[in-house]
Amino acid sequence: MDMNDDILGLVLERVSSHVALIRAAAVCRRWRRAIADAAFLRRYRSLHAPTAAGYYHNCYPPIRFHRGSGGPAFVPSSPRMVDARRFSLDFLPGGAWSWDIKDSRGSLLLMDSPLATSVPFGFRDQLVCEPLTRRYKRILPPTGLGLDNRCSFVASYLLDGEASEADGLISMSNFRVLCTFSRGVVTQAAMFAVNSTWSKKSIDHIAPSSVLSRLFGRGGDSWYFYGGDNTLISLDGSTGEFSSSVLPAIEDWDVLILGSRCFVTDGRDGKPRIFTVVKNTMKVFARLNGGEWTLDKRVLLSEATRRLKAYQPSSFSRSPSILTSGAGLVVLSPQYGGIWPFSIDLDTMDSAPVTRDMGKMVYRDEGV
Predict the structure, then answer these.
(1) Which of 49, 71, 343, 357 has its Cβ near the most Cβ atoms within 10 Å?
(2) 83 and 137 inside one domain
(3) Are residues 179 and 61 part of one domain?
(4) What pTM value is reported for the model?
């Protein structure tokens, strides 16, 4: 029986699983268009909490010697339910092999190409894409904002749409990208809107603004930067606004940051966690009701990994290498006694063997 678009939308809204909705989008072009519609996604997200269709990670180390090699990989959260081929990036200009993922929000990925830069200020070739619908939009270099050849491009961050547009939920029709540029020790910022316009972003209230070059990691939909003096600066991925919080004085954060011994990542509940790794000890800090940070868990790595097959008592005489941080886990590897990557669950502090290095960061894709 044929049904009009309104009835089809009502039927699809009642699909309770995000994974099942992704499979429905693969049925035909009409269903894919209906599911990709911004108004439909707004209604669907108001009825169903988001779940991850899977996770992307950049190949590490990257291989770019010939076409078809390397490129980001997608790992489905449920291989039986999610067809990884639907999340292929082979539709990107030049092929997936020439792009790296820099950020992700909802069903969108922010990507850049290390093979090409635009002048001035070394602005990399960038785009935002939606793998499920195989759409992308290039991010053109900013003009007319007072940026000149003395400025250098630093980084880009993918943000939700304006609150007045589609209830602020991110989509290909309303996303924003915040880019930072450095001039000496001072950082400047500019905002790209989906209509290809740029505007200057004031960050004068952040003191000093140079902290935006000291990236601490991403967690709970925000990016974090270390501001010195136990101060953490956060960039809210929903609003595009900056705020600050104070880190516990029980740690020497200047030393930890300098030695790359601590980062921010997501807990399994979607809230940010700070983890530190110093020699044999790993600590996890959580934020109480969005307020102050406090020590949540700690574990001796030599005890947590004792039952793993590759375990050696001498492995933790020095701090292990931090390989990957993802949703609810950290992947580490000893520097001595052989290389044997293992993961630590941030909730249980249990360990598990890891068969391969997944790169420096894992990027979540909600599919819809």
Answers:
(1) 71
(2) yes
(3) yes
(4) 0.73
Angle at 176 between CA 171 and CA 181, to 5 degrees: 150
Do 292 and 253 sit in the same domain of this protein? Answer: yes
Alpha helices in 92-189 (DSSP H): none
Cα–Cα distances in angstroms (integers) from residue 206 to residues 239, 295, 302, in the given order: 16, 26, 40
Number of structural domains (the chain) is 3
* 256-287 pLDDT, tens digit each: 888 888 899 888 877 899 999 998 999 999 98
